[in-house]
Type II toxin-antitoxin system ParD family antitoxin
Amino acid sequence: MSRLTISMPDQMNDWVEAQIDAGRYGNVSEYFRDLVRRDQDRRETAIRELRDMLDRAEASGISQRSLPEILDTARNEARQKGLLRGQG
């Protein structure tokens, strides 16, 4: 097993200690292992969702719409989801 030394602001350290004191984790190592597992899961889920999206897009065939129409639709959808602001 590897050993890491990390530095963090006091406020973050206080947060970690509070999680341990609340009984959510047995020690600092458990807390950080949980963070890493969650990050790995989130990334794997994002990759899986992206692959699924690409598979669906490929299976849908070639669009009859022009590239500007497709981009306009994508921008509008992104704005509606709060992922894009303003013009562009």
